């Protein structure tokens, strides 16, 4: 059902993607598929934790009964469903920095110049939609940066959520951001936002369970999440869905400890003049250093937790669209 409304012209682009045999046959057989991004491998986590995470998240999705599709640019080729050797190449090349961080604006350049590229949430959504994948799981969302009223630094993730009908399952916007402004911007762009939990549960703020910012909507189980996505698909709505999953008590970080670290990292970035696509990786690196790797461990745990939710949502969506 969902593909019925996809614009016909996408069919042409489908042939320019390299889709693995496993993912292709899962999609043709209407089996649940969960897309995964690769910027978190190339720019979000250090080696070897990036490789560990990328492997664990795929097995997590398989264990839940869905098919994982990690997405990246391999020598310029938009590739959906990476093989282990390709994931390994991304993870190890990340340390040499010879790899592009690809949001929507970087896509054409990366292809034309045959670059190796990690896909952010924005370009992963774009390629997922072209391939016909409805659900995508990751760690934390990009958003409106603090001080955006002067820098205008607003992640391309948000505009993509306004224009591409893919559901992103994550632990909320990162706490390094201005979460209130991020929610305002998503409303303007027309992105549906819902948080797992009883009515009134706030949006989580990756690394914390509760950002203090209200969630426009809530869902209490994965079937409810799938019904929202399915309703949008049936109408042919071309905007995205943000499904927030608060990290469980045991894996969320202590707010009073990490807040100070985030504040000093932000001040340091300003002092050093770090802007644009370098800012998020810089902040994540600083937090990892200052927490002695604790933030990296929770980042991995969040991705795994979201992958479980993403797989369950994909399973429910596939039941509805059969
Ligand atoms: N979440 C993480 N680590 C990351 C990212 C998200 O825990 O590295 C990446 C995602 O790929 C997201 C990107 O799309 O950061 C946003 O970057 P920017 O703020 O430059 O738009
Ligand atoms: Mn930015």
Automatic annotation (TrEMBL):
Q: Nucleotidyltransferase as a keyword? A: no
Annotated membrane-spanning segments are none
The UniProt GO MF terms for this protein read: hydrolase activity, acting on glycosyl bonds; metal ion binding; pseudouridylate synthase activity
Keyword terms: Glycosidase, Hydrolase, Lyase, Manganese, Metal-binding
Q: Which GO terms describe its cellular component?
A: cytoplasm
This protein is called what? LAME_0G17898g1_1
Species per Swiss-Prot/TrEMBL record: Lachancea meyersii CBS 8951
